[in-house]
Design a protein that fits this description.
about 220 residues, alpha+beta, NADH Oxidase, 2 domains, 4-stranded antiparallel β-sheet, about 45% helix, about 10% strand, globular, binds flavin mononucleotide
Length: about 220
């Protein structure tokens, strides 16, 4: 899948199907994400892959009761081993260590999208409770929980701020109407992409509804 498509088609997935996500797929995703950049190439991350149902339910509980999480096939808990980074960069190491894990997490969800796997970043949790549940040592801080699985349905598009409101030129507050920076063709291409995304989502949703209906009939 081309990069733009992976970025544009990714949506936070909070509704997972019961289709099995293989360990091989999870490994593929993490194996690419580990090539993420990190300050001083210190790679201060560790993953805990959780597939046990009871544990996933406990994690959902620790994540402020976000019950939808337990339907995901796997939780990837990204842990931040910041010690070495802080030692190398006394002033900004703590921030770098967090940034490194955030960049890695972004690559996990993008690679997942590329593989047709749904994902969600979950940052709302009690760090200490998660450490206790998964035997995480004090010097490895859980930075992010990432849910993975095949989507039953995807959320609506969340609006994004238009590029023209996000850019200043040369210094803060300086705006310019540069025609070559916002070519008209790019905007129309985006609209075409948006239409095709909407189509893909509608098809995913209808497949999900059919699957749910079939499951009901079986019962
Ligand atoms: C650092 C961070 C923490 C987040 N924590 C949660 C969370 O606890 N629960 C949740 O449902 N979504 C969480 N999200 C997902 C955002 O709500 C979501 O990315 C945003 O609304 C944009 O929607 P989209 O991902 O579908 O484009 C988090 C995202 C980030 C980057």
């Amino acid at each position: 899948m081309e990069f733009d498509k992976a970025v544009l088609s990714r949506r936070t997935c909070r509704d997972y199907s019961s289709e099995t996500l293989s360990m091989g797929k999870i490994a593929d995703i993490l194996d690419i994400a580990r090539f993420s950049p990190s300050s001083g190439n210190l790679q201060n991350w560790q993953f805990i892959i959780v597939r046990d149902q009871e544990k996933k339910e406990k994690i959902a509980d620790i994540c402020k009761g976000q019950t939808w999480m337990s339907d995901a096939q796997a939780h990837i808990v990204v842990c931040n081993k910041s010690k070495e980074v802080e030692k190398n960069y006394p002033d900004r190491g703590k921030l770098y260590a967090t940034q490194n894990c955030a960049i890695l997490s972004a690559n996990i969800i993008l690679k997942a999208a590329d593989q047709g796997v749904g994902s969600a970043l979950v940052g709302a949790f009690d760090e200490y409770e998660l450490q206790k549940l998964l035997d995480i040592p004090e010097d490895a801080i859980p930075e992010m929980v990432i849910t993975l699985g095949y989507p039953e349905s995807l959320d609506e598009d969340q609006p994004r701020i238009d590029l023209k409101y996000l850019c200043y030129f040369e210094s803060w507050g300086k705006k310019e109407d540069k025609k070559d920076f916002w070519p008209v063709t790019k905007h129309s291409k985006k609209l075409v992409k948006k239409a095709s995304q909407a189509k893909t989502r509608a098809s995913t949703k209808s497949k999900g509804l059919i699957r749910k209906a079939k499951n009901k009939l079986k019962k």
